[in-house]
Write a structure and sequence with these properties.
The chain has about 350 residues and is mostly helical. It has one domain (about 5-265). The protein has helices spanning about 5-20, 25-30, 35-40, 50-60, 65-85, 90-100, 105-125, 135-155, 160-175, 185-210, 215-235, 240-265, 270-340; strands at about 45, 50. Strands 1-2 form a two-stranded antiparallel sheet. It is elongated, with a radius of gyration of 40 Å. About 30% of the residues are buried.
Length: about 350
């Protein structure tokens, strides 16, 4: 593919994903007219206190359990929404800092994005209070950013990117057009997508033997958020048990991912990797030592031979010097004997 065509394909994919995100905004805005928050907005004070509950609190009735649960649920819901603004930022920054998406399963990212899209549309269509699902819309936007980063660092091809963008847009539009009576099936599909997403990521981490560039804070906040949503869902959307089941399963799977991070980065899973690296270094060092020993051994043998050689050469000289007087004396004696005979 020509470079200009590849660049155009990437721009088109970004535009499609941005359009998908922007298509959410009117739906979220319109949801305010149908949500229970809008219908009974006058019954809430400071967004977290029911009017009758606040009056009871001021009169000293501080242990009214239904009122306490409603207030805690609202506070917790808004806290979750606030935390959602940064839940995936550590992951995004890790990808940008390392210029790599190692450890992130592409299929897990896609299915997670579809799950968040469907869950947002479900709550919008069902008229749930924004405090019960607001973080889902925010995390959906961050999930889109993560998919775009994955494509920027490892572009899967024009057909792949276009297919994913079209599928996401189609799923969103189809869900927005669904009848209210069919919303329970939408939430069931959401649960399936989250199971597939988390299970795919869990398997990918197990196969890689590590978590790569996955961020601990993101995993922890996912776990804490889904666990907190079990409580808020039981209070604010208690007539929708499918939502409670979905968050319970998400909490379990997010806990497994968090446990994997702890195992491979702080626990026993880190030791085999360190031991393997140390063993490899030891083998390399032993090979280097053996090579050095063989070369130094040859040098020592040559040095020993050289040391012995001078001694062998010097010995005849010393013997010659010692024997020289005796040999010269013998010659004089033989010369004197010949003269006497003459």
């Amino acid at each position: 593919m020509q470079p200009w065509l590849r660049s155009a394909a990437r721009v088109a994919a970004v535009v499609c994903m941005a359009a998908l995100l922007l298509s959410f905004l009117p739906a979220v805005t319109a949801a305010g007219a149908h949500s229970s928050t809008a219908k009974d907005a006058g019954d809430w004070v400071f967004l977290v206190f029911k009017r009758e509950c606040l009056e009871g609190f001021l009169e000293g009735d501080l242990f009214n359990i239904p009122c306490l649960k409603a207030t805690i649920s609202k506070c917790l819901g808004y806290a979750i929404i606030t935390g959602a603004c940064i839940v995936k930022l550590p992951q995004i920054l890790n990808f940008i800092r390392n210029r790599s998406v190692a450890g992130m399963s592409r299929m897990a990212a896609y299915t997670e994005l579809i799950g968040y899209l469907l869950q947002s549309v479900y709550h919008i269509k069902a008229g749930s209070p924004f405090s019960a699902y607001g973080e889902t819309v925010i995390v959906t936007a961050q999930s889109i950013v993560i998919v775009l980063l994955m494509w920027a660092m490892d572009f899967p091809g024009t057909a792949h990117a276009a297919g994913v963008a079209v599928a996401l847009a189609a799923v969103t539009q189809a869900t927005l057009m669904a009848e209210p009576a069919h919303l329970v099936y939408v939430q069931s599909i959401v649960t399936v997508f989250f199971i597939v997403s988390r299970a795919t990521q869990i398997v990918a981490i197990a196969r890689q033997g590590g978590t790569g560039t996955l961020a601990f804070l993101t995993l922890f906040m996912n776990f804490a958020g889904s666990a907190a949503r079990i409580f808020t869902s039981s209070v604010e959307v208690k007539d929708k048990p499918e939502v409670l089941v979905s968050f319970a399963i998400s909490t379990l799977l997010n806990g497994v991912l968090l446990g994997q991070y702890a195992f491979y980065n702080w626990g026993p899973g880190r030791k085999p990797a360190a031991a393997a690296a140390a063993a490899k270094a030891k083998v390399v060092a032993s090979h280097d030592d053996a090579a050095g020993a063989s070369s130094s051994g040859g040098g020592r043998r040559r040095a020993a031979a050289a040391a012995k050689q001078p001694k062998v050469e010097e010995q005849p000289a010393e013997v010659a010097e010692a024997d020289a007087p005796s040999s010269s004396g013998g010659a004089r004696k033989r010369a004197a004997a010949r003269r006497q005979q003459a």
